[in-house]
Design a protein that fits this description.
single chain; elongated; mainly alpha
C-alpha cells in the first residue's frame, strides 16, 4: 500500500499581511517556524520513505523541519517547482480585496491595481494561473512525482507500506487530492479540500484495485493500473494546538505591528483566519468544517489533548512487522541543532455516538423537503414544515402506522405530494387551511426544488461531520437517492413547468435557471458575504447543481431536453441584442458569459452544446449566421461602429473637442471590456474543443461555415447588410489566434506539422475560386487530383492554421480596409470643404445660407468619421490582439519561405537568396491570399502601429520582403510585389523618435539585408516597369519609392559596397539607371509644368479687381483647376525630389554605369533641361505662394543637380555628353547657376571652382564635337529613323527589317523589350550588324571632315532666378 501525507507549509509572513502570495517567495513567520518544528517532532515516530517539497521557501523550510525530525537513515528528499502554490501573477505581493467594487469590471480592478477574490475556476489574474490550470499541474504532479516513482515500490514491497510526505500549499493540495481521487474508479471527488491549517496534514492511501492486472515492476511505472484511493484523515493539526496556545514571540521585528494591525490593537489574529490570505478568501467559509471532517473520515478515533509541554503525535500508519530500510536521501540537509525529543504518548480517543438511522432519516427528510406526516410537527414549526395530510391518510389506508416516520421508501411520494399542493387552491377542510395559507404564494416548483437541494447539501455536510464510518455509508445512500429524486424533478420542471401548480405571473421553465446562470457575472462581493434566499442558487452553487444535473440526465441521453432550452434562452438574452452592446449601462451580457462558462466547464454539457440544432443551422446565411447560431449573439458583441454606432456616440462624440487623454481613457476602458469578452470566448471555444472529438469537429465546422458564408467580404463593393459584422469576424479571429498560440513557438518546432496537402485532402475551406500564387486553375485542379489520395486526414494544428488564415482574409483584414476607407472619405470631405470655403464668392450671395449649411454638414460628417475611426482603433489595434496577430503572421511568413526553400529548413539556417528558378508546385497552388495577407497585415501595422513590431516581427518582415523581392518570379501578381516593397517603405518612415522608422535599424544590421537589400530594390525597380495593367505607366510611380528606403541605409558603408557590387552586373544595372533617368525626366517635367500653371493662376488671382470682374463660373473653374494642380504637383515634386536625390547618391558612389553610351547622353540632357528650368529665362514662372505646401524646395533641387554634375565632372564621357546636348546646354546657363549657388551658399568655393573647371572642359568638348560633326546635309539612309541623327553603328532589326543605330535601339530596349516598329519581342543580341552601310557612313564622314568650317557661340542674356 502507498500512503501519502499531504502537508501544508507553516505560517508565512505574507499570511500576516493579507497579501496574495502564490509564487512570491515569503519566509516563514516566527509562528510558522515553531509550527514546522512541532510538525517534525510529531512525525518523529512515523517512518517516511520520501519527502517531496515545493521549492518555495515557506514550504521548503517546513519540509526540512519534517526531515530533521526523522530518525536516521533519513528519507529521500526532493524539491520540485510543480508543487508550488497557484500563481496569482500580477496580484502577487498585493493586498487582496474581500469584495469587488460594484459596477466595476474585473479588468478595471486589475488596471487600478486592485485584486479581489476570483470566483470561477477559469478566472485568473493577469499573467497568473486559474484553478483549472492549477488542477492540470496537480494531475501531472500526482502522476510524475508520486504514483510512477513510489507505487512500484509499494507493489514490489509486498506487505510493507511506502509512505511519502508531500509538502506544498493550501490551494495546490486542494487540487492534488482530487487529482488522486479521480483515479478511484474514474469518479470526480465531491469534497472540497481547501481551508487547511498551517502544517495540517491530510492522509490518503492508494492500493491497486483488486483484480487489476499488476504492471511490470521497474524503477518507475510507465502505466498506472486501476486504483482504490481512500482519504483517511483530513486537516489534522493537533500538533500545533499548544503552539497556538503559547502566545507569540516575534520572529520578524515588524511582525508584532503587522499582527496587531490585522488583529485589532494588541489582539492576536488566530491562525484559522491568517492562513487564508494566501489561498483564497473563500476558504474562510470552509475552515471549521474541514477541520472537523477527520472525525468522520479518519480510520482511527480522535486523540485527546496531550500535555501542554509535548507536541501531539499523529496516529501511526500501518507498517509491516519488520522495519524496512529507508532509501538513502539524495539531499542531505543540515541536522537539527537540538536533539530529537522522545516520542510523546498517544492521546486518548473520544467515544463516538452511534447514529440512529431511522430517526436520522425522519429528521433529514423533514428538513430537506420541509414536509411531515404529523400535524404536531407542522404546528410546532408554525407550518414552515408542511403537513401532508392527504398522503398520511393514503398511507394509513395502505396499512402504514399513523405515527410512522419519514423514510427513503416513501421519499418520492413525499416530494410529489408536496409539489401537488397549490397555494391558490380553496379547501373545505378547515384543518388544512393553515397549511395552504403557509405555502409561499409566489414560489415556483423549481425554486422549491432548489431549496430542497440546498438543504440536502447541508444535511450531507452535517452527516459527514459527526457520523461514524459504520453508519455513514447507509446514510449517504439515502442522501444520494434523495439528491437523484430532487434533480430528476428539477429537470422535469425545466422541461414541463406546468406539470405541477405554479404561481401566476412568474416566468417558468428554462428562464428560472437562466436567472441563476446570469448571477455568475462579475460579482461584487466575495462568497463569504453573499447571502441568497434559500430557494435561489448562489453563484458557488450553480456549478455543483449543474454537475448533479449532468450526472443524472447524461446517461439516459436526456441532457439535451433538460438543459438545451436553458442554453438557448441564455444565449438569446436581450442584453446581447441591445443597441448599446458592450457600451451600455446594462452589463447583463457578462452574466451570459459567466453562465456559458459554467455550463461548458462540465464536459457532458459542453458536448451537448455542439449537438443542439442551433449550434450550426444549415439554413443560416452570411448575414443571419451571427444571430441564428447558438454562439453568434455572444460572438457579435463588439465596438465597431457600423453595427454598434452607439459606442462611437457615447465614447467618442465631438472628437475634435476631446483631449488626447480623454480619447485614450475612453479607448482603454473599451479595450478592457473587449479583452474580457474575447478572453471568455476563447475559454468557451477551447473548452468545447477539448470536450470530445465530436465537439471539436463541430467547432471547426462552425469556424469553417463562418468563413464559407462570408467570402463576399473580400469583394470590392460589399453591402455590409449582406455579410457578417466586423465584430463577429474579428472575435472569431481572436479565438483562432489564441488556439494557434500553442504551436507558434520561437523555434518553429511544430511548423512541419502543417500539412502542405491540406487543400487537396480537405474540403473544409473551399479555395476552388481563389487565385493561386503562381498556378492556373487547371494546374491547381491537376495537383488536387494527384494528391487527394496520398495523405491522411489533416491534424488539428493544420485545421487551425488554415482556418486562421482564411478568417483573417475575410474578417480582420477586410475590417482594416474599412478603417482605411474612413480616412480616405475624411480627406475627400476635407478637400471639398476647403474648396467651398476657399471660394468666397458665395458670401453675401443668395446662396450664402445654403452654402454655410453645407459646410456645417460636412464638419458634422467629418466628426462622425473621426468617431468611427476611434471606435475601430479600439479593437483593431488592441495591443494584445495585434501582438498575437504579429506572432501568427511571423509564423505564416516563415512557413511560406520554408515551402519555397529548396532545403525546407528555413529559418534554421536562413534561406539562401535568391530562390531557385523552379517554383515548387505545392507553393504555386497555395491561395494567393495567404501570401497577400502577410503583406497586408505588415503594411497595416507599419502604417498604424509600428511600435507593435518592437518586440517581434521586424526580422520576419525583412526576411519575407527580401525573399520575394529578390525572387519575384515566385509571385504572379505584380501589385502584390509592389505591396511588399510598400511595407518596407512604411517601415522606414519616421515616427516618434525613430528617424529611420521601425525597420531602419534592422535594415542596417541584419546579414540578409546587408547582402541582398540593394539587389532586391534595384531588381524590383526595373521589374515594376511592366505591371501588365493599362495604367502601368502611372502605377510605377506610386510603387517606386525605394529612394526613401535607400535614404535610411545610405550612411551604412556595407550597403554602398553592395551597390558597387551590383553595378558590376553592367547590363542589369544600366537598365536600372536608365529607368531612373526616365522617371526623373517625366516627374520633373510634370512637376515644373504644373508649378508654372499654379504660378500663372496665382498671378491672375493676385489682381483682385481684375479677378472680381471675371464671371463667377470662370473663377470657380480656375479655382478647381488650381486645387487639382496643387494635389498633382505635391505628388510629382515629392517623387521627383527623391529620385534626383537617388541620382546624387548613386553617382557619388559608382560612375562607370552612368558613362555607358546608352545612358550618358540621356543623363546629360535630363540634367541640362532641369537646370535650365531652375535658373533659365523662365525660372520666375516657378515662383509660387507657400512652396512648402507642394513640397517644392528649389534650393535643394538645384543643389542636388549641381552635385550630380560635380560627382561626374572628372568623366570625359560626361563632359562630352553635356556639350553634345544641343537643346538645353549653353555656357551662360551654367555660369548663372554657379553665381546663384554662391549667393545662397549652396556649395563651397572649392566646389564652385570645380564646377567652373567642368564648364571649361565642356566647352573644349563642344568645340571638338562641332569641328567633328559639321557634316552639312546628311543623306536620309544614314539617319537614325527614331532620333534623326547620323548613325554610327547601323543594325538591322530581325522582325521588322528596319535599319537603326545600335545605340538608339539599345537605349530603347532598356525601357521596352520590344521592336518599336512592330512590337515583337526583341533583345539586343538579336540585332544584325549592317557592315556595308557602316562602311559607307564612315566614308561619308571622312569626306565631309575635309570640308568642315568653323562655328561661333551665341551670347545669352542674363535673367533673374527663382532661388531668392
Amino acid at each position: 500500500m502507498l500512503i501519502i501525507s499531504f502537508i501544508r507549509h507553516g505560517e508565512s509572513l505574507d499570511n500576516l499581511r493579507s497579501h496574495w502570495a502564490g509564487h512570491k517567495d515569503a519566509e516563514l513567520s516566527e509562528l510558522g517556524v515553531r509550527q514546522a518544528k512541532a510538525l517534525g517532532e510529531s512525525y518523529a515516530n512515523i517512518h517516511l520513505d520520501a519527502i517531496i517539497s515545493s521549492d518555495l521557501k515557506r514550504a521548503h523550510a517546513t519540509a526540512v523541519a519534517l526531515l530533521n525530525g526523522q530518525p536516521d537513515p533519513k528519507p529521500s528528499f526532493r524539491v520540485d517547482p510543480d508543487l508550488r502554490e497557484q500563481c496569482f501573477g500580477d496580484a502577487e505581493g498585493n493586498s487582496w480585496l474581500m469584495r469587488r467594487i460594484p459596477d466595476k469590471s474585473l479588468d478595471d480592478h486589475f488596471r487600478d491595481g486592485q485584486y479581489p477574490i476570483l470566483f470561477s475556476r477559469h478566472e485568473r489574474f493577469p499573467n497568473g494561473e486559474s484553478l483549472s490550470d492549477l488542477a492540470a499541474r496537480a494531475e501531472r504532479s500526482i502522476s510524475d512525482l508520486v504514483l510512477k516513482p513510489y507505487l512500484s515500490r509499494a507493489i514490489s514491497s509486498g506487505v510493507e507500506d511506502v509512505h511519502v510526505a508531500v509538502v506544498s500549499h493550501g490551494l495546490c493540495i486542494s487540487e492534488l487530492i482530487p487529482a488522486l481521487l479521480k483515479r478511484n474508479n474514474g469518479g470526480a471527488p465531491t469534497e472540497d479540500y481547501r481551508g487547511l491549517m498551517n502544517t495540517a496534514w491530510t492522509r490518503v492511501t492508494v492500493q491497486v484495485k483488486p483484480g487489476a492486472e499488476l504492471p511490470q515492476i521497474t524503477n518507475e511505472l510507465k502505466d498506472i493500473p486501476p486504483l482504490t484511493v481512500t482519504v483517511t484523515d483530513v486537516n489534522r493539526h493537533e500538533h500545533i494546538t499548544n503552539v497556538r496556545q503559547k502566545g507569540i514571540v516575534e520572529h520578524d521585528p515588524k511582525q508584532r505591528s503587522i499582527r496587531e494591525f490585522f488583529g485589532g490593537g494588541g489582539a492576536k489574529r488566530p491562525v484559522e483566519a491568517l492562513e487564508h490570505a494566501e489561498s483564497n478568501a473563500l476558504d474562510e467559509i470552509r475552515a471549521k468544517r474541514l477541520a472537523k471532517l477527520q472525525v468522520g473520515r479518519s480510520s482511527a478515533p480522535s486523540p485527546e489533548a496531550a500535555s501542554t509541554s509535548a507536541p501531539v503525535t499523529p496516529p501511526p500508519v500501518p507498517k509491516s512487522a519488520q522495519p524496512k530500510q529507508a532509501l538513502p536521501a539524495p539531499l542531505a540537509p543540515q541536522k537539527p541543532q537540538t536533539p530529537i525529543p522522545s516520542v510523546p504518548p498517544k492521546r486518548k480517543q473520544l467515544p463516538v455516538t452511534k447514529l440512529d438511522i431511522q430517526t436520522w432519516e425522519d429528521e433529514t427528510l423533514t428538513q430537506i423537503f420541509k414536509v411531515t406526516l404529523k400535524r404536531s410537527v407542522a404546528e410546532r414549526s408554525s407550518y414552515d414544515i408542511v403537513w401532508l395530510k392527504s398522503l398520511g391518510a393514503e398511507l394509513a389506508s395502505e396499512g402504514y402506522p399513523s405515527t410512522m416516520n419519514l423514510s427513503g421508501d416513501i421519499a418520492d411520494r413525499l416530494l410529489i405530494s408536496r409539489l401537488e399542493l397549490d397555494p391558490q387552491a380553496m379547501s373545505d377542510d378547515f384543518d388544512y387551511v393553515p397549511v395552504l395559507a403557509s405555502l409561499p404564494p409566489q414560489m415556483t416548483v423549481f425554486e422549491y426544488l432548489v431549496g430542497c437541494w440546498k438543504r440536502l447539501n447541508s444535511a450531507k455536510a452535517n452527516l459527514v461531520k459527526k457520523t461514524p464510518v459504520n453508519e455513514l455509508q447507509q446514510a449517504s445512500a439515502l442522501i444520494e437517492k434523495t439528491r437523484d429524486l430532487i434533480i430528476s424533478y428539477a429537470g422535469l420542471t425545466l422541461q414541463e413547468p406546468e406539470m405541477f401548480p405554479q404561481p401566476v405571473g412568474r416566468e417558468l421553465g428554462p428562464s428560472e435557471f437562466v436567472g441563476s446562470l446570469l448571477s455568475l457575472s462579475a460579482l461584487s462581493t466575495p462568497l463569504a458575504t453573499v447571502s441568497s434566499p434559500n430557494y435561489v442558487l448562489s453563484p458557488t452553487e450553480v456549478e455543483p447543481f449543474l454537475q448533479d444535473i449532468a450526472r443524472r440526465f447524461e446517461p439516459d441521453n436526456e441532457l439535451d431536453g433538460v438543459l438545451g432550452p436553458v442554453v438557448q434562452r441564455l444565449l438569446s438574452h436581450t442584453s446581447l441584442s441591445s443597441s448599446e452592446g458592450l457600451a451600455g449601462g446594462d452589463s447583463s451580457w457578462r452574466g451570459v458569459v459567466g453562465g456559458v462558462e459554467a455550463l461548458v466547464s462540465i464536459r457532458s454539457i459542453a458536448v451537448m452544446f455542439t449537438r443542439l440544432d442551433r449550434w450550426n443551422p444549415p439554413d443560416a446565411t452570411a448575414s443571419t449566421f451571427e444571430t441564428v447560431t447558438l454562439m453568434g449573439p455572444l460572438c457579435r458583441l463588439g465596438v465597431f461602429s457600423r453595427e454598434w454606432p452607439i459606442v462611437a456616440q457615447n465614447y467618442f462624440s465631438d472628437p475634435t473637442k476631446r483631449s488626447r487623454n480623454d480619447v485614450e481613457s475612453s479607448t482603454a476602458s473599451l479595450r478592457g471590456t473587449v479583452k474580457s469578452l474575447q478572453s471568455s470566448l476563447f475559454q468557451i471555444f477551447n473548452t468545447l474543443i477539448r470536450a470530445s472529438p465530436e465537439s471539436r469537429e463541430a467547432v471547426l465546422e462552425y469556424f469553417a461555415t463562418a468563413v464559407k458564408l462570408n467570402v463576399k467580404r473580400a469583394g470590392m463593393q460589399v453591402d455590409p447588410q449582406t455579410v457578417a459584422s466586423d465584430s463577429f469576424m474579428v472575435n472569431l479571429q481572436n479565438v483562432l489566434l489564441r488556439l494557434a498560440e500553442p504551436f507558434i513557438d520561437a523555434r518553429y518546432s511544430k511548423m512541419d506539422r502543417i500539412d502542405p496537402l491540406y487543400f487537396a485532402i480537405s474540403n473544409r475551406i473551399d479555395v476552388s475560386e481563389e487565385t493561386r500564387i503562381k498556378a492556373t486553375s487547371e494546374e491547381a485542379g491537376q495537383w488536387v487530383e494527384a494528391n487527394k489520395g496520398n495523405a491522411a486526414t489533416p491534424n488539428f494544428i493544420s485545421e487551425i492554421f488554415y482556418l486562421c488564415n482564411a478568417m483573417g482574409h475575410y474578417g480582420y483584414l477586410r475590417t482594416t480596409q474599412t478603417y482605411d476607407d474612413f480616412a480616405k472619405h475624411h480627406d475627400e470631405l476635407q478637400r471639398h470643404h476647403d474648396m467651398i470655403n476657399g471660394d468666397g464668392s458665395w458670401i453675401g450671395s443668395p446662396f450664402h445660407a445654403r452654402t454655410e449649411a453645407a459646410l456645417n454638414q460636412m464638419k458634422t460628417e467629418m466628426a462622425k468619421i473621426q468617431a468611427h475611426q476611434f471606435a475601430f482603433r479600439v479593437q483593431l489595434l488592441e495591443p494584445d490582439f495585434v501582438f498575437r496577430y504579429i506572432g501568427f503572421t511571423n509564423f505564416v511568413s516563415t512557413w511560406l519561405i520554408r515551402r519555397a526553400d529548396s532545403k525546407g529548413l528555413h529559418p534554421t539556417p536562413l534561406v539562401e537568396l535568391p530562390l531557385p528558378q523552379e517554383v515548387p508546385m505545392s507553393f504555386r497552388v497555395l491561395p494567393e491570399y495567404i501570401l497577400e495577407d502577410v503583406v497586408e497585415f505588415f503594411l497595416f501595422v507599419t502604417r498604424h502601429s509600428p511600435d507593435s513590431l518592437n518586440l517581434s516581427g521586424k526580422d520576419e518582415l525583412l526576411v519575407f520582403a527580401l525573399t520575394f523581392l529578390t525572387s519575384t518570379w515566385y509571385i504572379k501578381n505584380p501589385f502584390l510585389k509592389a505591396k511588399i516593397n510598400e511595407a518596407v517603405f512604411y517601415g522606414v518612415l519616421p515616427y516618434g523618435n525613430e528617424r529611420s522608422g521601425i525597420l531602419g535599424g534592422t535594415l542596417n544590421s541584419h546579414p540578409l539585408a546587408l547582402k541582398h537589400l540593394i539587389p532586391a530594390l534595384t531588381h524590383f525597380y526595373t521589374e515594376v516597369e511592366q505591371t501588365g495593367a493599362s495604367s502601368q505607366f502611372y502605377d510605377k510611380f506610386s510603387e517606386r519609392n525605394i529612394a526613401y528606403i535607400l535614404k535610411a541605409i545610405w550612411s551604412n558603408p556595407a550597403h554602398r559596397q553592395a551597390l558597387n557590387a551590383e553595378a558590376q552586373n553592367v547590363e542589369k544595372f544600366v537598365r536600372f539607371i536608365n529607368l531612373m533617368i526616365n522617371d526623373v525626366t517625366y516627374l520633373m517635367d510634370e512637376s515644373l509644368s504644373e508649378l508654372t500653371q499654379i504660378h500663372n493662376i496665382q498671378t491672375e488671382m493676385r489682381d483682385q479687381n481684375a479677378w472680381a470682374a471675371r464671371p463667377a463660373q470662370y473663377r470657380r473653374e480656375r479655382e478647381g483647376q488650381l486645387r487639382g494642380l496643387e494635389r498633382h504637383a505635391s505628388s510629382y515634386t515629392t517623387l521627383g525630389k527623391s529620385t534626383v536625390g537617388l541620382l546624387r547618391d548613386f553617382t557619388a558612389e559608382t560612375k562607370a554605369p552612368f558613362m555607358m553610351p546608352e545612358i550618358v547622353d540621356k543623363l546629360a540632357a535630363m540634367l541640362d533641361y532641369n537646370l535650365e528650368a531652375l535658373v533659365g529665362p523662365k525660372c520666375g514662372e516657378l515662383r509660387v505662394r507657400e512652396p512648402e505646401k507642394y513640397h517644392f524646395d528649389p534650393r535643394q533641387l538645384l543643389s542636388d543637380i549641381l552635385q550630380v554634375y560635380l560627382n561626374l565632372s572628372d568623366q570625359d564621357e560626361f563632359a562630352r555628353a553635356v556639350a553634345n546636348d544641343g537643346r538645353s546646354y549653353n555656357k551662360g546657363l551654367f555660369e548663372r547657376a554657379i553665381e546663384r549657388a554662391r549667393k545662397i551658399a549652396l556649395k563651397t568655393e572649392p566646389e564652385l571652382e570645380q564646377m567652373r573647371l567642368f564648364i571649361d572642359k565642356v566647352e573644349e568638348a563642344k568645340a571638338t564635337i562641332e569641328a567633328e560633326e559639321d557634316l552639312g546635309e546628311i543623306p536620309d539612309e544614314f539617319l537614325d529613323p527614331l532620333m534623326f541623327t547620323l548613325m554610327r553603328d547601323p543594325v538591322i532589326l530581325p522582325s521588322s527589317g528596319v535599319v537603326i543605330d545600335r545605340g538608339t535601339i539599345k537605349s530603347h530596349l532598356l525601357s521596352d523589350a520590344k521592336d518599336p516598329f512592330n512590337r515583337f519581342p526583341l533583345t539586343i543580341d538579336e540585332v544584325i550588324p549592317n557592315s556595308g552601310l557602316r562602311a559607307r557612313i564612315d566614308a561619308f564622314v571622312a569626306e565631309r571632315h575635309s570640308q568642315r568650317a568653323g562655328r561661333s557661340d551665341k551670347p545669352t542674356e542674363d535673367v533673374d532666378v527663382v532661388m531668392g
